[in-house]
Specification:
Radius of gyration: 20 Å
Order of helices and strands: EEEEEEEE
CATH class: Mainly Beta
Strand content: 35-45%
Structural class: mainly beta
Distance between the termini: 60 Å
Helix content: under 10%
Number of domains: 1
Number of strands: 8
Strand order of the largest sheet: 1-2-3-8-5-6-7-4
C-alpha cells in the first residue's frame, strides 16, 4: 500500500466541450490498515468524488474488492463513535477510486474501507452499533389475541 498523499477531485462535465474539468475538493490519506481517511474542503453537488495520487500515477488503492464502503465517523464522547454509512467507492484498474455519496458528511470527513462481515453476515465495521430489529405495530383498536 502506498503512503503518498492523495488528491480528491470532482469531475465536472462541460456541455459542448471535449474535456471535463477536474476540480480538487480535498485530500486523502492511507491508514496503516489500508483504509483511507478523506478530508473535503468542498462538497460536490453531484455527490461523486475521484481519488488518485498527486502525480496521477497508478497504484492508489490495491484491493480485490469490487466495492468499498464509505463512512463518516461521528464522535459521541467517552470513547464512543458512530459509523454512518454514506455511500460506496469503486476501484478503477489504474488504482484510483470513484466515490458515490448518498448524502454529505457534516464535517467534510470520510473513511473508506473494504466491507467487513460481522457474525450475522452483514457488512459492518468494528464499533458500529447494530440497528434494532423493527417490531410490528398493531392497528389502533385491535386487541392482542389469546393463544
Amino acid at each position: 500500500m502506498t503512503t503518498k498523499n492523495l488528491n480528491v477531485f470532482t469531475v465536472i462535465e462541460r456541455e459542448g466541450q471535449d474535456r471535463n474539468f477536474w476540480q480538487q475538493v480535498g485530500a486523502a490519506f492511507v491508514n496503516k490498515d489500508g483504509s483511507l481517511n478523506v478530508r473535503l474542503n468542498a462538497i460536490p453537488l453531484d455527490g461523486r468524488l475521484h481519488i488518485r495520487e498527486q502525480n496521477g500515477s497508478s497504484g492508489t488503492w490495491k484491493t480485490e474488492a469490487k466495492r468499498l464502503d464509505v463512512f463518516t465517523i461521528v464522535d459521541r464522547g467517552e470513547d464512543k463513535a458512530f459509523w454512518n454509512k454514506l455511500g460506496a467507492a469503486f476501484p478503477n484498474s489504474d488504482g484510483s477510486l470513484n466515490v458515490v455519496l448518498n448524502c454529505n458528511p457534516v464535517d467534510g470527513r470520510l473513511h473508506i474501507r473494504e466491507p467487513r462481515a460481522n457474525v450475522d453476515g452483514d457488512a459492518q465495521p468494528e464499533g458500529e452499533s447494530k440497528p434494532k430489529p423493527k417490531t410490528k405495530r398493531r392497528a389502533k383498536g385491535k386487541k392482542k389475541e389469546d393463544k
